Amino acid sequence: MTAAASIVFSSFTSAADPMPRAWSRFRDQLISAEPRPAEDPDEPRSGPVCVWRLLASNNRELGRSAVLYRTFLDARAAVFEARLAASEFEIRSVHGPNAGTHGWFALDPGGSPLITCGRWYGAHAASIEAAQHSIEAFQGATVLAEGHRRLSPDRRRSVREPAPTAAPATP
Do the bridges between strand 142-143 and strand 6-12 make them parallel or antiparallel, or are there none, so unpaired? Predict the structure, then answer.
């Protein structure tokens, strides 16, 4: 199952858009005791942002980026960089906002939150098992290269954007 996992990207016109704000609120519930990464563009809440999601072969979300990136290229580069150190991730388990809920997130070797769960689990053991499986899947996931989906604030329109290419060299 891990070999069929994929990493997909979505971008939003603004960090103030309801979707990235909800993403940030969920992340903040998970990692409230951890320091925020210096490069996290949640502050200030302006300009476009991009996120990545780790999906199983059945498109079920296994994990998601803890950071909102400024561009698709930043998010994609961060995924490739993180995969080099994935075996050194530190998994943290947390209690959710309601009784009987548990979640997880993983810190990179530098101690910054990098990947989080996408939902709450009913048992601590299930949360830890999901975290371990997700990190394993992250290491072998196919990183989609064809671009990212740009979502409009009203969610009625989305556009698949090709991956930006470098400008041709001039002689």
Answer: parallel
Return d(Cα 152, Cα 90) in angstroms, integer.
Answer: 34
Pairing of strands 90-95, 61-65: unpaired
Q: How far apart are CA 124 and CA 46, in angstroms?
A: 36
Task: Report whether the peptide linkage leading into residue 44 is cis, meaning its omega lies within 30 degrees of zero.
Answer: yes
Q: Which region among 15-29, 56-70, 149-163 has the lowest average model confidence (pLDDT)?
A: 149-163
Beta carbons of 67 and 114 less than 8 angstroms apart: yes
The Cα 12–Cα 151 span in angstroms is: 5
Handedness of CA 65, 67, 70, 76 (dihedral sign): negative
Which residue bears the tokens 């320091």?
Answer: 35
Neighbours of 124 (CB within 10 A): 16
Displacement of CA 83 from its chain's centroid (Å): 13
Tell me how far apart the alpha carbons of residues 57 and 89 are, in angstroms, rounded to a whole number. 23
48 DSSP assignment: -
pLDDT tens profile 48-100? 999 999 999 999 999 999 999 999 999 999 999 999 999 999 999 999 999 99
Region of 58 (left: φ > 0; alpha: ψ -120 to 50; beta: rest) is: alpha
